[in-house]
């Protein structure tokens, strides 16, 4: 895979596919982690005299122009972080984009409007996607893929454009791939994976693959209740995927056969409803009242999980342990994060809600070895899948 060092960028237009898909409250960015992660590559290119054209998506406008998903606030924040003005194109491949790009001088940066305003970006039709990719590629002379959070998508800006231009991987993608290789090749043991989040179905492939590789698998979050139910326990009104029970029983059997220590919660915070101020009690995980729902792992489970992490040499964590957005149910996620920080292990936070939780809970980002910018992409990599965006960069 070529890197920035392999490209002669001075005076040339370089299209950078970044991941700037940040959460917005109106026009206010509530977590700028992905923008900050994109800055080093953009800065490196601008510093070498490139005319930098950044493209990215935001949300799911589904091929329609929707002001709610405009990247304009992102352009302003990117400019603040770069310490220079970022020109903003009001469209993706139209007149505004062409005029904005043509006006760039060496070392200057522009951001195109939301890629997903264009139906061709996400099209399943190769011809439609390719036609849009040609228009996008026409804006530049070189391509740099740096949006790790999108490399598992076969989208025009990720998969098709690098086939049309000389290309390289940006610093963020290089760093992400190096980290993920450490989780899949010659991994230092004990190797512990902590999985949480809402649904087992989102992580079927990665669980199946990890059971062949890890020493311990700790399960928390909403997905834990499907595991508990699969063991025959009452889970009340907790989140449950009935259609996954047979699959989960298979995972439990497979873990037993392989000698993998699959650890489930022993107690939970059982609440009267899904609300920040819901009444709740600590109950045994095997005896959740029928009229209650588990919203976080309990204190005994927090201690248990911390003990299972204490001697780890490698840890991958993806998915919160509870509804961390509600302060009353954020303690389990905080406990796991703090156990990772204190473990001395090589610790990887697998993007998505886990990364958001670290920032929301005010935990030190440098307390972890790596915080991924791509939850879905990192899971698919660990699942053993070929990621279209990486495959395109390796060509």
Automatic annotation (TrEMBL):
User: Where's it mainly located?
Assistant: cytoplasm
What are the EC numbers? 2.7.2.3
Origin superkingdom: Bacteria
Q: Which PROSITE patterns match?
A: PGLYCERATE_KINASE
An example Gene Ontology molecular-function term: kinase activity
Q: SUPFAM superfamilies of this UniProt entry?
A: Phosphoglycerate kinase
Q: Which InterPro entries match?
A: Phosphoglycerate_kinase, Phosphoglycerate_kinase_CS, Phosphoglycerate_kinase_N, Phosphoglycerate_kinase_sf
Q: What keywords appear on the UniProt entry?
A: ATP-binding, Cytoplasm, Glycolysis, Kinase, Nucleotide-binding, Transferase
Which compartments does it reside in?
Cytoplasm
Q: What is this enzyme's class at the first EC digit?
A: transferase
Q: Where, by residue number, does ATP bind? A: 203, 294, 325, 351-354
Q: In which pathway does it act?
A: Carbohydrate degradation; glycolysis; pyruvate from D-glyceraldehyde 3-phosphate: step 2/5
Annotated binding of substrate, by residue: 19-21, 34, 57-60, 116, 153
HAMAP family given in the database record: Phosphoglyc_kinase
Which PANTHER family does the entry link to? PHOSPHOGLYCERATE KINASE, PHOSPHOGLYCERATE KINASE 1, CHLOROPLASTIC-RELATED
Subunit structure comment from the entry: Monomer.
- Protein's recorded name: Phosphoglycerate kinase
């Amino acid at each position: 895979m070529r890197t920035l060092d392999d490209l002669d960028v001075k005076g040339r237009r370089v299209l950078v596919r970044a991941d700037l898909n940040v959460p917005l409250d109106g026009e206010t960015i509530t977590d700028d982690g992905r923008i900050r992660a994109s800055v080093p590559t953009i800065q490196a290119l601008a510093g070498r005299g490139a005319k930098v054209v950044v493209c990215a998506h935001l949300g799911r406008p589904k091929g329609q122009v929707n002001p709610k998903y405009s990247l304009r606030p992102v352009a302003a924040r990117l400019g603040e972080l770069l310490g220079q003005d970022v020109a903003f194109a009001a469209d993706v491949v139209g007149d505004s984009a062409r005029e904005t790009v043509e006006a760039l001088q060496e070392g200057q940066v522009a951001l195109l409007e939301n890629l997903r305003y264009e139906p061709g970006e996400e099209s399943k039709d190769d011809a439609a996607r390719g036609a849009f990719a040609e228009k996008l590629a026409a804006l530049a002379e070189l391509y740099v893929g740096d949006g790790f959070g999108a490399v598992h998508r076969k989208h025009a800006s990720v998969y098709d454009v690098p086939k049309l231009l000389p290309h390289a991987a940006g610093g963020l993608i290089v760093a992400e791939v190096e980290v993920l290789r450490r989780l899949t090749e010659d991994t230092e043991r004990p190797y512990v994976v902590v999985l949480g989040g809402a649904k087992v179905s989102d992580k079927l492939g990665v669980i199946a693959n990890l059971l062949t590789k890890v020493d311990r698998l700790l399960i928390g979050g909403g997905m834990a209740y499907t595991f508990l139910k699969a063991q025959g326990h009452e889970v009340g009104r907790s989140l449950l995927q009935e259609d996954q029970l047979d699959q989960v029983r298979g995972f439990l059997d497979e873990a037993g056969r392989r000698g993998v220590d699959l650890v489930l919660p022993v107690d939970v915070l059982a609440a009267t409803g899904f609300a920040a101020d819901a009444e709740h009690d600590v109950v045994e995980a095997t005896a959740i009242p029928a009229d209650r729902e588990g919203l976080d792992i309990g204190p005994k489970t927090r201690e248990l999980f911390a003990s299972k992490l204490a001697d780890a040499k490698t840890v991958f964590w993806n998915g919160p342990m509870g509804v961390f957005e509600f302060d009353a149910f954020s303690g389990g996620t905080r406990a796991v994060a703090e156990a990772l920080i204190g473990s001395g292990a090589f610790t990887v936070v697998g993007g998505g809600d886990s990364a958001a939780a670290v920032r929301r809970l005010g935990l030190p980002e440098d307390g972890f070895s790596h915080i991924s910018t791509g939850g879905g992409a990192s899971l698919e990599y660990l699942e053993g899948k070929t990621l279209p965006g990486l495959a395109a960069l390796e060509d």
